[in-house]
Amino acid sequence: MIPVGSYLLLSFALFAIGVLGAVLRRSAVAVLVSIALILNAVCINLAAFARLFGDASGQGFAFLVLVDALLQISIGAWMFRSLWRSRSAHRQAPSDSPEPSA
Amino acid sequence: MSPGFVFYFLGGLVLASAGLAVTRRNSSHTVAFFAVASLASAGLFLQLRAPMLATAHGVLFVIGCGLVLRMAARQPEAGIRAFWIATGLRTWLTIPAVIALCVAGMILIRRARSLPAEGFLVSGAAPAEQLPRNASAFAHAVFGLYPTAIAAVVVLALLLFLTRRGARKEAGER
Question: How many angstroms separate the CA atoms of A102 and A99, rounded?
Fold first, then answer.
């Protein structure tokens, strides 16, 4: 059996990668993916401790975290899409306005 | 295949693909590497004797990757054109990603077969009377211990659905 410390190290590294990506990247997709990586690291931790204590409650909580991550991704995708639409509409607006007469 | 080798392989795959997903500039590369990291994480869950969680993880993150790709593919500013999968991915990035995906899938199936009474994903892996061992414990944990959390998640999903529906209605009226 793999010791639980190995899983903790792995999830710590994954968490660190996710935090770095969420803080340093400016792309919306990269930020969403980084936050999902952070939640993934949390799930690995929960599953490792569930295995260590022989209790499935950690797995149940990890499942709820996963569903929450999916909802967060869909909300984020929707928000960023609306933002892009409003930005592109804002950019097109000056060209649509009539030319001022001299 | 020893559990140590599987763990280090899957862990390395998770870390490498997560690092590449965070550092790539093209959004389709980011989502592809994130999919590899998610599948490798599902393999880790299988190794932790949590097949229900692995299944849920695989299904939910495939839906999540689809949502993000759909969002990115509709935005010309994200750098993804009409045939983003066919033309957007470079060959030297696609081939390792596909190979890693195949290897992770094979390991998942092997692990599912080697877990008696828990590998319900693969046909013929578990006898029917032994199936509910992890499934029943998982269901008991989810529905017995966290009813408030389930209610919160359901309310959140409902709010999201209603808000989207309202926004679409408003856009249609305009």
Answer: 9
Task: Report the sign of the C-alpha dihedral through residues B98, B103, B105, B106, in that order.
Answer: positive
Q: How far is CA B114 from each of CA A11, A70, B59, rounded to the nearest angstrom?
A: 25, 29, 21
Q: Which of B29, B46, B53 to mutate to test the interface with A (most CBs of A within 10 A)?
A: B53
Q: What residues contact B120, with CB distance under 8 A and at least 6 apart?
A: B51, B126, B131, B135
Counting runs of H as helices and runs of E as strands, what totals does chain A give?
A: 3, 0
Give the minimum alpha-carbon distance from B119 to chain A in angstroms, rounded to a whole number. 16
Q: Which of B4, B149, B164 sits opposite A78 (nearest CB)?
A: B164
Which residues in A2-27 are b (16+ Cβ under 10 Å) and which e? Answer: beeeebeebbebbbebbbebbeebeb
ipTM attached to this prediction: 0.81
Alpha-carbon torsion angle B63, B67, B69, B74, nearest 10: 150
Q: pLDDT tens digits, residue range A38-50?
A: 999 999 998 888 8
